[in-house]
Structures are given as structure tokens and as C-alpha cells.
Amino acid sequence: MKGFIGLQSEYSLLNSTIRLGTLFKTLEERNFDTVFLSDDNNLYGSYKFFSAKTHLRRIIGMKLSIIHLEQKTSLYAYAISQTGYQNLIILSSLIQLSKTKVVEMTDLIKYQTDLVFITTGYDSDIDQALLENNYGEAKKRIESYVYLLKHFYLGLMVQTLKMEIEVAPKLQALSLEYTIDMLPIHQANYEGDVAPYDALIQIEQSERRRFDEGDFSLPTYEKLIQSFSEYKVVFNNLNRVFEHVNFSPEKLNFELPNPLEPGISSKVYLKDLCEVGLGLRHKKQPFKNPERYLERLNYELSVIDKMGYNNYFLVVWDFVKYAKKEGILVGPGRGSAAGSLVSFALGITDVDPLKYDLLFERFLNPERISMPDIDLDFPDNKRDDVIRYVQSKYGKHHVVSITTFGTFQVKSSIRDICRTQGLSVAETNRIVKQATEAYDIRDPNTLNILKLAQSIEGLPRHTGTHAAGIILSSVDLTRIIPLQTGSSELYQSQLEASDLEHMGLLKIDFLGIRNLQIIKETLGILEQRQIKLDLHNLPLDDVKTYELLSKADTVGVFQLESIGMKRVLTKLKPNQFEDLVAILALFRPGPMDNIDIYIERRVGKPFEYIDESLKDILAPTYGIIIYQEQIMKIASEFANYTLAEADLLRRGVSKKDKEILESERLKFIRKAVENNKPEALAIKIYDYILKFALYGFNRSHSVAYALVAYQMAYLKAHYFDAFMTVLLSSIASNTEQVMDYIQQLKARGIKVLKPNIQTSDFEFTLTPSGIVYPLIAIKNVGTQAVTKVKEARLNGPFIDYDDFKKRLSSELNDKVIEALIFAGALDGFGLNKKTLYENRKLIHKDYELFVSDIEMKQYDEYSLDELVEKEKMALGFNLSYTPASFYQPLLEKYHLKTLDQIEQTERVLGLIKRVKVIQTKTGKSMAFLEVSDGQTTIDVTVFPEIYSKYNPLMNSKDPLILTIEPNQYDGKKYILNRIEVIKDEHAETQLK
Q1: For residue 182, with 0-12 CB atoms within 10 Å meaning exposed, 13-18 middle and 19 or more buried, which class applies?
Q2: Is residue 564 classed exposed, middle or buried when 0-12, 13-18 and 19+ CB atoms within 10 A define those classes?
Q3: Phi, psi at residue 752, to the nearest 5°?
């Protein structure tokens, strides 16, 4: 056996640069025939370790942190059988789930069957005792290990001078005294170059260095033999201990748990559920051709049963049913699952696949062994409730979340390396900029840093939790999958999603999306108004909704908020649901190039189909292949593919693999000719498919998400105040967005009222007078403070300022009360802000027993500019006051407009916030201004003649009266005509 103990991979996070992907080839080149993997306390790489193609014998282990005789130390543990591997999994889980990240000796004893334990060299407690010349302590510890562990060996390390001279001879003597075999330890943490490893171990522990400056590189077998020349017996011992070990983990057939009572047939129950569900759907919204629905349903059920996925659909149905029963909104669908009629009948999705021409085979292909993949959308504040239900129903050992690995990226690796080299932030930023902007770098120090950064790029840096994926299984996963703590209450697998799926475990994605929460809460406000909407049966031809979409008034509307998408909407002017479906599929890199073609053809530009036989398939998208399902239908119609074969074609050509492309070409042409189609036309159509295959989008997903977008647009179009109230709450911490949304509300005549200590809550609240600002959005007012206020209000409203202070003075600190004052939350007590502030610490009613006529001292109010500043500090912007407030009398006297009222040439009040001067082609100066009145900001162009006249005034810090006209070529920009200076706030204007 040619191997050694102590090799660690990249999954010993921040402690190895050896990559599993290249490890086996490297070991073969260095004449090894066996690899012992022993990462630090984890089995992150275990699946990849066993699934890699190699001739090497593989023996899996770990370097365990343990407590032995009240001292923290370590042991290598290697599995010699399937039972040993299961115990290794348990020990790894115990250590990763513990707070201390160590294994207690009692657990090590309990789970030691078929595990071989070996001391770890310089950091074992025995070697540490020998380094300290404490021979007696070393003997005591050896005797303890021998007594407690069945398969215990001494690890001999000679890869540092100190270990070779001070430890090895003593360890050999102890080996002979206790007749315990020594095995060869060579801790390997990098392949060759030590510099990247030295930098890596300092990323989180700047003081860390290699022990005794040792060589911890991956050796050749010849070099390893040479280093143990005085102790050759260790290799005979290694062979004797592990010669019969050659196992791989058993491949298990995983099944989902069954939500039904024992004895009930999943197949029959699923069929019954679907028939009842489909009947209810038909009763609510009659199908045009019910026979087609029954035919499709029976086909899908037969495929699901044949592939063994009856329980999968029942499990999903069960927790979706729970969510709906609890009033938790479930998205209409996501991904290819929306193409399943079974999903529609069960209420898992709300997209009718026959109505929208969606294909089941895009979801589940009977000719390809594949896992079903139903992803579910829930409101992001309710997702965890559904997961908790699943965990409680099936047990915490059957439901686990999934680990992800954060890796070193280009910029992060450079920054981390720079930090280990002691470089300043400025110097680091300079190097990052040079590296990412294609500078010609010649400085040796910079080049060295980039070389080090490149060598660690792609290595795992830390673990995270998969954003949505959950694994469910009927078997107890604790002996099959190594576990660790994650970001949720669930156990978390140490393996990543791809490993788990390759093992045969089924993953279900529970996604939390903010938009469903917005929809649900908007519907809640409407219910308070006695308005009941059937969200899933809204009219899809609503004129008001399409008017909103055509104007791109889509702030807050799912998938339609971006500037680019708004631009597309104004050009497209959608007037039917299919427009939304198409644009969601097209608005992506690649297919985006077809958007203008689509719009031109939609409004009447002539075009030809590649062949008239494909007209029915391509007519809805004006001759352009937009959807993957169209590729499948073309193959089915033109070349007589089954839809299952067509899905294999779609998958194959989308990979752009030359071998697959050529074999599929020959197959497509052959089948087309057999279907009586001309060969030349078959070639032409196949090439046409190739042109769009890479960009084709899943229509099922596009239809489902278009429904969510339409629902939100409908709510915004018909119930603007309710929709915007909820939308404001969803972004309450983003001051810029709050300001933007408030402007939109003002433009529609809806007031946003300052916070009120008597009524404000955690969210924005809609009232007949306007939308009330929440307490939680005030700076320095946290969740605990708002909770205390709400609890106090349960005993009745605050009678006056004294009553407020008396009931809450011990609960709210000075900063909170100050913030409430200047945000306007205490204005209802009838006192000005200075009086409120100056009396904030004194409760006058407490003195009435002693002084009958004590009164609260009154103060003159702060100046307007102080109120503006203090409100801005409390809210992050001005809600009640604006800079224009100083000049309100002037605005009224001279009939000035505000910036958001400019429709033609107007005189307005504004502050010039920014000036950008440029030179025209003729050498004259002109400028672009950013003008604000504290609420609205606009861009204003100043042409040369006006610039030369008013240039000196453009750096003024004071408000100016500006005469502005809209730019006729761009409705969002304006042109400056004139500036008037205000002498003082009471004076007439001085014309310029």
C-alpha cells in the first residue's frame, strides 16, 4: 500500500490549498495507490471523494478535535467499513452541531466501531507531552487511549526538525513498550508552492504560522519513503491495518415520506384527489374541452406512478394545503412544474397548462430518469412557518437544509491576500482596480500578490445555507448525511445540493418572495374595506391594468420595476396577457436582441415563417422562437418526435456540445424525412432551432410569473392607496425609496401623514385622512421601543404629554423620546417641539401633591431651519418641512410652482445641487444642473447663451427662482431660461 495518513483537502477550510478535483491525478503522478482523506472535523468533500473517477484506493477519515483527560487535542479517525463510515458521519455531525466544536470522549467511545484512531503528530496530546519532556504524562495518555479505544495507533511524524529529533525516538520507544504500532503521518496541506498556503492560514488568524516551519506539502512516494528511512516499519504497519479496506458508501434508494395513513394507496389517493380538484376547477371556470383535461390527467398520473413519484406530489400537496388553510399565500407556480395538470388539479399551482399550451414533458420526462422539481413561492415572512410544519410532520431527522460554499472570488481573494501582507485599504483598492481593469502591471510586489490571490481563487472560504432548498426523506438522515448547524432551526447537511441530488435525494425549494407578502397584505387592507377579490380569477383583459403597464407605472410591480423593463413597456404598450408572458421571457441577455423585432412585428411589420407548417406554433410570437416548449413542439410536429424525445432534443442542443449537436442533427433530419419532409427544409429548421435553443425560455415559468406581475399591476391600478401603503412598509428602511414613493402618492393627491404616538405601528397604516408613518421607521426607534408603546396603548390612549412620559419614561431612553419629538410623533399633545424637548425629563403631575399650581414651562418654537434639520435627522428626509417651507409666503405671492408641477414653462423655487460644465463643439461652455426643492429632483440643461448670463449664480447655496421649460425631446429633462435671486425671506426678488 502506497499512502500516508494526514492529507487534507480544500474542505479543511482556510487550512489547505489541495483541490479535490485534481488530487487523484496528482497522487497517481506521484506514485501513490491509496489516498487517506482527513479533513478538519467535517465530511464536506466525502461524496466527491468517493464519486471521482480514479484507480486509487480511497479511505475516508477526519481529523477530529476531541477532549481527552480534560485537554483539548486531536485524533485521526478512519472508517474501515460501512458501519465505520456511519459512525464517522455521526461523529462529524456531533462536532459540527456542538457549540464547542469538539467531541467528548464518551461519544468517541460510543461510536468507535470499525474506526481506526491514530494520533495526529505535533498537535496530539501525546506528542505535546514529549515536546515538553513530560514522559510520564505521555505514558498516562497512551494508557488511557489503549483502555478506551479498540483500534488505536501512534502516528509518527518526521516532517519537521523538532518532531524528528525530539519526538520520534521517544515515540518509537513508547511504541515498543506498549506494543502499539506506529503509522506514517505526513500532514499535507498544499501540493508544492508554500506561499499561497502561508497566506491562506493567516486570512482569519493573522498570527498563525506553520508549525516549526515544517514542510507540509504533498510529497512523492519516493520522497515519503526517504523521509521515514529510519522507521520503515511504519509502512508495513499501515498495510497490515488497512489492507482489507476497500469500501464505498452504500448506494441507497431514498423515498419521500408518505403523508397518508398506513394502508392507504398513494396511487389511488392521488388519482382521487386530482379528479376532485379538477372537477372543482371546472366548476369554478369551465374548461372548453373537458375530455382533453381528463386524457391529459390520466397520462400524467400514469407517468408519475411509473416513475415512483406519487408520494412526492402528495407531500407537496399536503404542505401547500396547510399553507392555504393557514391563510399563507402560495405563488401560482414557478419553473416547469406549472406545465403539470396534476399540480394544477392539486392546487399546487394555479396555472392551467392546457389553457396556456404548457408541456408536461418539460417538467417530467418519462424517457429520462430525472427528479421532479416543484419549487414553491411563499411570502418571505411566512416561508419558515411552512418549513416548520413539514419538520413537525415528518420529524427533524427527515428534513434538512442544504449547505452552500462561499468561495474566494477575484476581488475578495486579492483583498484577503493584501490584508495578510499588511497593505493599507488605499493600496489594496489600487491593486484591485489594476487587476480588474486590465492595467499593464509590472510592479513585482503587485504581481506577487495577484499570483497568490489567483492560487486561492475558487477555494471554499466558508459555508452558508441554501436560500431555498430542503431535503426530505422517509429514512433517518442522521446516519447517512453528515450534519451541521445552519441559519434556520433545521439540521443542515454538510453536503451541497449537487452531491445530495446525485445521491438520489429529492430537493424541494421553498422560496420566500417579498411580492407575495405585498399582495397578501394589500388584500388584507381591501378586506377591511369589505372588498373581496378572487386573486386567481382576475379578468386578464382589464383596461385599467394595461393602461398602467403601458405607462410603465410599475414601481413595486414584480419583475417590471427596472429602468430597462420600463423602457420596454412604454415601447411595447402591452394590451393582452401574452405580451407580459413574452416580455418576461425576452428580457434577458441574449434574447433581449429580439425585443424590438417582436414589437415591430406585433404592430404590423410583415414577416415570413421559416415554414408555413410551423405557423400555428410560431404565430403567437410573430415567427420568433421565444420558449423552449416551441422547440419541443416543432420537433414533434415537423419530425414526429414524441414530446419526451423532443425534450431530450431541447436539453441536448441547449448544451452546445458538438457531439450532441451532430448526433441530434442526424436524428432530426432522419425523422423529418421519415415524416415526409424535404431534407433541405429539415436542415434549415434544425439550424433555426439551434439559433434560439440557447436563449429559449421556460414558458411555464414565464406564464406563472406573468400572473404574479399582472396581479400586482391590477392591485396597483385599482387600489393604488392600499397597494402603496403596503409597498412603503416593505421598503421602510430605504430612505431614498420611501421619498420616491411618497412623491408618487403626493402626485395622486394621497397624503403621507407624520407618525402619531397614538396610532402609528410597525407598518405604514392607511386611514381615511392619508397614510400614517410608522414608528419603527423613525431613526433610533427600534422594535423594542415600538413594542413598549403598543403595550402601553392597550391601557388606553395617552391623555397628554405627562401621561405619555409617566407610562413610558422607564421604558424609552432619551434618544428615543428625542426622535419621537422631532419626527412629529408627539405633536398631538398640542405643544411645540421645543417645549416637548425641554420638558422631556420632567413629569409635572408628580409634583401636584406638593405644589398645586405647577405648570409646564412653555418655550418659543425652534426656527424653521432648525425644525427642517431636526426632522431630517429623525426620519432621514423631510416629511412635514422642506427647504421650500421657508419661502411659502413668497411661493404664494408670486404664484411659483413646485418642481413636480412643471408641465409647461414655469417659474419654480429650487436649490442647485450639482453643476456639470462641458464644452460644445464650437468651444462654448454650457451646463447640466441637478435642481431640487427638497422633495423633487430634476435635471436641467443650460445652453451657452443662458450659461454665460447666469454662470455666477449657479454656485449659490441659497434657493433661487428659476424659469424652466420641459425639454420637448425628453419629457424627463428640462431647459433653463432665467434665474431670479431672492434677497431675503421677507424681501422682494431681485431680478437678474
Answers
A1: buried
A2: exposed
A3: -110, 115
Quick one: pLDDT at residue 455? 95
What region does 552 belong to: left with phi over 0, alpha with psi -120 to 50, or beta? left
Q: Is 604 helix (H, G, I), strand (E, B) or coil?
A: coil
The answer to whether residue 848 scores a pLDDT higher than 60 is: no
**pTM of the predicted structure, to 2 decimals:** 0.82
DSSP-derived secondary structure letter, 780: T
Residues 84 and 225 in one domain: yes
Length of the chain: 992
Sheet holding 483-485: strands in order across? 375-379, 506-513, 460-472, 399-407, 491-493, 483-485
**Domain-located, residue 652:** yes
Q: Give yes or no for a contact between 837 and 818, defined as CB atoms under 8 angstroms apart.
A: yes
Q: How far apart are CA 199 and CA 418, in angstroms?
A: 9
450 & 396 share domain:
no
CA gap 916, 954 in Å, rounded: 10
CA distances from 647 to 477, 624, 651 (A): 33, 19, 6
- For residues 281 and 349, give the distance between their C-alpha atoms in angstroms, rounded to a whole number: 12
- Asked, for residue 368, whether it belongs to a domain, the answer is yes
pLDDT in tens, 82-122: 999 999 999 999 999 999 999 999 999 999 999 999 999 99
Task: Give the domain range for residue 746.
Answer: 731-875
Distance CA 565, CA 646 (A): 32
In a domain, residue 107? The reply is yes
Q: Judge if 662 and 803 occupy the same domain.
A: no
Using alpha carbons, select from 701, 723, 702 the residue that is nearest to residue 714: 723
Instruction: Tell me 32's DSSP state.
Output: -
Distance CA 293, CA 283 (A): 13
Those residues with Cβ within 8 angstroms of residue 339's Cβ, 6 or more apart along the chain or in another chain: 353, 358, 359, 360, 362, 363, 629, 699, 700
**Per-residue pLDDT tens digits for 515-561:** 999 999 999 999 999 999 999 889 999 999 999 999 999 999 999 99
For residue range 477-515, list pLDDT tens digits in order: 988 999 999 888 899 999 999 999 889 888 899 999 999
Among the listed residues 146, 171, 145, the one whose alpha carbon sits nearest the alpha carbon of residue 158: 171
Which amino acid, residue 885?
S
Residues 364 and 505 in one domain: yes
**φ and ψ at 902, to 5 degrees?**
-75, 115
Instruction: State CA 379 to chain mean position distance.
Output: 15
925-932 and 765-767 as β-strands: parallel, antiparallel, unpaired? unpaired
DSSP assigned state of 33: S
CB-based contact 402:497 (threshold 8 Å): yes
Positive/negative CA dihedral, 203, 204, 206, 207 = negative
- Cα–Cα dist 659/268, whole Å: 43
Q: Please give the tally of structural domains in the chain.
A: 6
What is the per-residue pLDDT for 571?
A: 93
